[in-house]
Amino acid sequence: MKTYAGIFPILLFTSIAYAQTKSLDELGWPRDIKLQKGSITIYQPQIEKYADNRVDARAAIAYKVTTKSPVFGAMWFTSRVVTDKDSRLVVFDQIVVETMKFPEGDEAKVKNLKDNIIESLNGQSLTMDLDRFLASIKHLEEGSITADQYNNDPPKIFYESSPSVLVFIDGEPIIKDVENSSYKYVMNTPFFLVQDSSDKNFYLKGGKWWYISRAVESGWKSIENPPKGVMELSQKAFQGDDNAVDSAAINLTSPPKIIVSTEPAELIQTDGEPKFEPVQGTDLLFLSNSESDIIMDIQSQQYYILISGRWYTSKDLKGMKWSFISPEDLPADFAKIPEQSDISDVRYSVPGTQEAQDAMLENSIPQTAEVDRKTATVEVKYDGNPKFKKIESNAVSYAENSDKTVLLVHNRYYCVDNAIWFMSAKPSGPWEVCVEVPEEVQ
């Protein structure tokens, strides 16, 4: 047996020798470890750092006592790594648990649970198949995915100081005939948007308001009532529910402005002209008369907006020249936003805050639910024959024309519905509950 760092403790050699007698399946994941009280299941660790024969890693865990349902959590640990290439085994030796996260509950009980698990795990060793280990650090060798490897192009960001509604059309309008009528409808938008073939006008319903325009993307004007045929078509589509499409304008006394976009877009609004208030203890201001998270940095005179967990910045609030900014490049004062501030909800997207760390921990805790595999199923529909498009640099294809997320991986189909994965040999089923999805999906 080869060694690479001098003479290791006898216990370590014993761990490797014992592991050699086990099959690769037994060295797989998850791994169960008996504790003084109950047991803990450790799922395959995700390596975050590997250097100088040491790893920083995180792993989902499940703690179970007797017949009670398991409590899921996550742990972060460091360990020395010992590799034996002859036996093709890797040992995480002398594990030190740095952080542990469990669901909120009785504070004393949660602390006691953490203390017991940490005490039981600290100093333990875990053995892993070398090939699995190499696969788990591959992303480190190739370089971690950085922000510039994602498409962080900002959406179109519209600003309005008066009530407005953003109507999104997914690409150029796709117009189809309504059977047995003179009307056509725009199918790639969630809004009720139809064209009357007789007068060529488009009609739009937004909440309780009706609009008319000669073009889809601009020129919308409010009208009292649409033609009778349009009204009847709307009632059939929404079964008489006037607010079925958009409820943003329900409480307004006058019709809002209509903004149409055929590309990803966001609408930021203020109740009148922008009003700013200072953020205590910082050189930041925030827009107090807007529901959007908009911050002004006094020092740089830059605006910052948080959209779907990503930050964008601009010199002009009313212009459309926004650019992506990595959270690490935010002004230092963002981390000083008080927890009691009216803008404190942005703290989860600011590195270094407790909220950001908690969000990362929460995302690492698996969510579980009991599913009856005999009765659980899913219905998948396609607009015509199933059409799949391959994802670049991946063995996965996805359905372009389905109402569900359907993936094709290695000649099998996978569909997720209400957080439950199903699989099938055919794109339209029959579907059965999938116990484990392929790594490519993960």
Describe it for me?
With 442 residues, the protein is mainly beta. Helices cover 13% and strands 34% of the residues. It contains 6 helices and 29 strands. The chain has helices at 10-20, 107-121, 130-136, 138-142, 228-238, 354-363, and strands at 31-34, 39-42, 46-51, 54-64, 71-84, 89-101, 126-129, 156-160, 164-168, 175-177, 183-186, 192-196, 202-206, 209-213, 221-223, 257-261, 265-269, 276-278, 284-287, 294-297, 302-307, 310-314, 323-325, 388-390, 396-399, 405-409, 412-417, 420-424, 432-433. The longest helix has 15 residues, at 107-121. It is globular, with a radius of gyration of 28 Å. The relative contact order is 0.08.
Count of helical stretches = 6
The total of beta strands comes to 29
Ends distance: 36 Å
Q: Radius of gyration, Cα only, in angstroms?
A: 28 Å
Task: Report the principal-axis shape.
Answer: globular
The amount of helix comes to: 10-25%
Largest sheet: 7 strands, antiparallel
Instruction: State the secondary-structure class.
Output: mainly beta
Mean of residue pLDDT? Answer: 81
In the predicted model, the low-confidence regions spanning at least 5 consecutive residues are: 1-25, 240-248
Strand content: 25-35%
